[in-house]
Amino acid sequence: MKKQIIKSLTKNFESHVNKTENGIEFWLARDLQNLLGYTDWRNFLKVISKAKTACEISGNEVSDRFVDISKTIKMPKTAKKTVLDIMLDRYACYLIAQNGDSRKEEIAFAQTYFATQTRKFEIIEKRIQDTERLKARQKLTETEKEFSGVIFQKTGSDKNFGLIRSKGDRALFGYVTNEMKNRLNVPPKRVLADFQPTIILKAKDFATEITIFNSKEKDLNTERQISEEHITNNRSVRKTLISRGITPEKLPAEEDIKKVERKLKSEDKKMPKTVKKLK
């Protein structure tokens, strides 16, 4: 495909990108129909139908990526007509291109264009998720350090910290810390939280923050009092998670947070200085 054609097609595809108020990009199916060289809407709907099937097979929610809408178009003599259309995200567009007529020049271009764009988005999304998880892990570390200090101040010893934390884990997961480490195949000498997802890190942090607050406000001075407080708070957090369809002990282990941190630092070093300043 000649460079001039590629440049022209790229401009056409990007000029039809729309954005929601949340900054989410999407294409309209009727615009995409023309971009992909389809003159008949009914024929294009057949391609969309195949794409929806592929979407479902891949485990994605079709209604999240193919959103039915209606819009008003102008007709001759100031008349107007309401027609059906579909909002499509990048992945939906990619699936449509994959199921289109590959003999069409526009389809051949779109298959590469959307595959590339989707991959870029996935990389960005993964980095955001990794960064969020790392921040949550660092925040939990700070909170637990404060908690250890509170326990020392209240009981005269910080040796109870591990015991109290394990009791909190049992209330949150139904298993003590070492049992959860075994369930998730966490190395014996590593910390459980280094392998847990962001939602659990934030849940544990929240429960611990409440325990710190109440230990001070209620002047809890013994290991038993602080343990009971921590158990109550973790049970409350567990109840909230389960009510929202999240069972803490059933969530799979995540990548070692230390590896994630090294990877992010390595990527930062490779970024241009101007990009780093904008972060």
- Count of helical stretches: 12
Q: Give me the count of strands.
A: 4
Oligomer: single chain
Which radius of gyration do the C-alpha atoms yield?
26 Å
Task: Report strand %.
Answer: 5-15%
Query: In one word, what is the shape?
Result: elongated
The percentage helix is 55-70%
Which stretches are low in confidence, meaning pLDDT under 50 for 5 or more residues running? Answer: 273-279
What count of structural domains?
2
Structural class of the secondary structure composition? alpha+beta
Order of helices and strands: HEEHHHEEHHHHHHHH
Overall mean confidence score, pLDDT: 86
The biggest beta sheet reads:
4 strands, antiparallel
Record the strand order, biggest sheet. Answer: 1-2-4-3
The N- to C-terminal Cα distance equals: 37 Å
Report on the structure:
The protein has 279 residues and is of the alpha+beta class. It has 2 domains: 3-101, no CATH class; 126-268, no CATH class. It is 65% helix and 9% strand. The protein is built from 12 helices and 4 strands. The protein has helices spanning 3-15, 29-35, 41-57, 62-65, 90-98, 105-155, 161-173, 177-183, 198-217, 223-243, 257-270, 273-278; strands spanning 18-19, 25-28, 66-74, 80-88. It has a 4-stranded antiparallel sheet. A hairpin with a 5-residue loop joins strand 3 and strand 4 (80-88). Helix 1 (3-15) packs across helix 6, helix 6 (105-155) runs parallel beside helix 9 and helix 6 (105-155) packs across helix 11. The longest helix is centred in the middle third of the chain and has 51 residues, at 105-155. The chain starts with a helix and ends with a helix. The model is unreliable at 273-279 (pLDDT under 50).
